[in-house]
Every structure is written in structure tokens, then in C-alpha cells.
Amino acid sequence: MPRPILEIDHLTHAFFNGTGIHDICARIFPGEFILVAGPNGSGKTTLIKHLNALVRPTSGEIRLHGRSVTKDLIVTRKTIGMVFQDADTQIVADTVEDEVAFGLENLNTPRARILEKVDQTLAYMNLIHLKDRNPSTLSGGEKRRLAIAGILVMDPEIIVLDEPFANLDYPASRDLVEIICRLNREGQTIIMATHEVEEVITYASRMLIMDGQGRLVKDGPPRELLGNLEYFGIREPCFSRMGYSAPPWQT
Ligand SMILES: Nc1ncnc2c1ncn2[C@@H]1O[C@H](COP(=O)(O)OP(=O)(O)OP(=O)(O)O)[C@@H](O)[C@H]1O
């Protein structure tokens, strides 16, 4: 049995108004593709913020390789790369190339190495043709891929994505699913929070379902949870409603 990368241990974050997340326990292993699902307000974003120690728990803790994520913020944030829903808030540079180079420059990486890694990452994310463009001129799908590129170039052990399909049309979502699945097949550990699971449920290895009170109510393989998702306030994928266990083109 491999050792978990992350251990979420009785994590509670109580907001002043009584909402938040309550007593969450889960372990995440190398190479997993975890879906964190649940209706609006179930605490997905709050949980994700704790993974990167962006907020402090009321009680409990998250351990990364056995050490609290709050212990060494530099190590935590280098190991766990976060891609938030609003890609615009993550953009800092005037060109796509500089945007992806930004994190490496801050680590004083040699220039030649930066250029090489940035090119590799842009090619991987299908953005190389946009290298000289101003990020503000990109489409929503391109911006989302750029935000992932900026994280990927730093070689994080875990990539965390918050609602990556929000505001994307079908082709942009499919492109993103392909990239995320390819990353996961190559060994990248992925944690994705979403309330729309249709796009990715058959590719995820495990699903954590949160309820409207911020509690973790299910932790299991997606195939075992299909058919019961509506009960948890999650839209049942179309193929599942039609009685299939996976989209017909995948079986
Ligand atoms: N800073 C805050 N102060 C007070 N309450 C908060 C704060 N942040 C989140 N909450 C509350 O905590 C609960 C969980 O919110 P959170 O954003 O984590 O849910 P979510 O599952 O990510 O929702 P969505 O799918 O809408 O993004 C909600 O009831 C929300 O109103």
C-alpha cells in the first residue's frame, strides 16, 4: 500500500455564521484523480483552500507527506499547485510566455532552462501558437489552459482545480478533459472540485461527495456512486440516466 501524499484529518472550518466544513477525513494517494463534488455551498472551495494553507482550520489539520501543510508554506505551495475558477485573478504578465515563466523566474531558474520549460509546457497545453499574445485577449478556455500551464511548469506533485469547466463551452471543456486525463495517465495526482461531474466522472479514480452542511458524506469509486448522485444534489450524468455505466463511446 503506498503512503498517502495528503491526509485530511478531522478538518473543520466554522465560519461565524455557522456554515463551513465539518470533521472532514480523507487520504489521497499518489496518482489518484479525485473529484470533490457537491452542491453549491457544500464547502468544496473551503476544503481546497485548506489544501494550500490559504486559510487556517478551526480544528483538525491536513498533512502533506506527514507534515502539516501550515508548517512550511513554501514547500506546501510548491508541492500543491492550485488553479482557481477565475483565471483572470491569477494572470500577472503581459504575454502568455511571460505568464508561464513567472513562477520559475521567482525561483531564480537559469534563463535557458526557463525558456525550455515554458516552451515544453505551452506545447503540452496546446498554447504554443499563442506564446506572444496578451493573456487578457485569450478566450475563456485558453485562459483556463494558461492558468494550468503556469502551475504545471512548476512541477507540482498535486494539481488542484476548482470548477475548471465553469463558463467553458463544450469544445473547450473537452480539450480540458483531454489534457487533465493525459496528465493523470502520466502519473500526475489531480484533485478537482466541481458540482458538474458529467465531463469527468468516468475518468476519476475516486469521488468525495460533500453535502449542503459541509460534511463529507461519501468517499468511493465513481462507478459505485453512479445512480445515486441526485440524492446528494449532484446532477446524474446523461449516460447514467440512460442506464449506462459509462458513456457508450467509452465502453
Ligand atoms: N469567508 C466566508 N465567510 C462566511 N461564510 C463563508 C465564507 N466563505 C464561504 N462561506 C460559506 O461556507 C459555505 C461553503 O462555501 P464554499 O464556497 O466552500 O462552497 P462550494 O461548495 O465551493 O460552493 P460553490 O459550488 O457555490 O462554489 C457556504 O455556505 C458559504 O456561504
TrEMBL record:
What residues does the ABC transporter domain cover? 6-238
Keywords attached to this Swiss-Prot or TrEMBL record, sorted alphabetically, are: ATP-binding, Cell membrane, Membrane, Nucleotide-binding, Translocase, Transport
PROSITE patterns with a match to the protein in the record: ABC_TRANSPORTER_1, ABC_TRANSPORTER_2
Task: Mention one GO molecular function.
Answer: ATP hydrolysis activity
Q: Where in the cell is it found?
A: Cell membrane
Q: Name one GO cellular component term.
A: ATP-binding cassette (ABC) transporter complex
Q: Matching Pfam families, A to Z?
A: ABC_tran
The entry sums up its family as follows:
Belongs to the ABC transporter superfamily.
> Know the name of this protein?
Cobalt/nickel transport system ATP-binding protein CbiO
Q: Which organism is it from?
A: Desulfotignum phosphitoxidans DSM 13687
Q: What is the lineage of its organism?
A: Bacteria, Pseudomonadati, Thermodesulfobacteriota, Desulfobacteria, Desulfobacterales
